[in-house]
Amino acid sequence: MFTILIVEDDALLLDALTGQLQQQGYGVCTASSVPEASALLQAQAVDGIILDLGLPGADGMDLLVWVRSHIAGLPVLILTARDGVDERVRGLNAGADDYITKPFNMQELQARLQAMLRRARQPAFTHAASAPGGQSISLGPLQLDPASQTAALGGVALELTQREWELLELLVQRCGEVVTREDVLAAWRASPPEPGQAAATLNSNALEVYVHRLRKKLDPSSLAIRNIRGLGYMLAKP
């Protein structure tokens, strides 16, 4: 039986979704905010997420970025009232597997959910997870171990700060794709600060410093972090 986490702050919609999915044989757990959802994901395993973006306190996109940084292969279906093309593109580029706007048809949602879960179980769509026991990720001479949050270049360990590790992991997981500044900052804000670092220092200027430092550490390899003007960064495929 699949277990689905529904992250939705509308109590009536949450109840309706829960009832419908349980009737279809799914196990369901729920959360109404980003902190509640991230705490639940760290406490128990789920097979997929239905995620609203308009959540109180923190945007659902923050949770999506956190999931992609910590549980890379977990399927996520965005269910939101935001129907603009830019929002759809942003959600899909941030790692969502599907995107449905409200109001929606329940049968269509169930069909898309089933298709998403089915794809996630196929070998071609499996990803290394950043949870304890997750598999290592290799990209050219670079190897990442999400379980211990360590990286090596050509067999030589890299000395990385927590922020550098999170930036590198996000770039590697989305190698060949644009990672926006907002995506990186959201991932950083979703994790504990480094010792002596205030949350207020997490801004674009700080990000430029971390990118520069990470570039220098990758210099001996063929891996290059490119600036995509006006958008963010991309780790070029070796």
Question: What can you tell me about this protein's structure?
Answer:
Residues 3-117 form the Response regulatory domain. One of its GO terms (molecular function) is phosphorelay response regulator activity. This protein is 39% helix and 19% strand. The chain is built from eight helices and twelve strands. It has helices at residues 11-23, 34-43, 60-70, 85-93, 106-120, 162-173, 181-189, 204-218, and strands spanning 3-7, 27-31, 48-51, 76-80, 98-101, 137-139, 142-145, 150-153, 156-157, 179-180, 225-228, 232-235. The strands form three sheets. The protein has a five-stranded parallel sheet with strand order 2-1-3-4-5, with helices on both faces. Strands 6-7-8-9 form a four-stranded antiparallel sheet, covered by helices on one side. Strands 10-12-11 form a three-stranded antiparallel sheet. It is elongated, with a radius of gyration of 18 Å. 32% of the residues are buried.
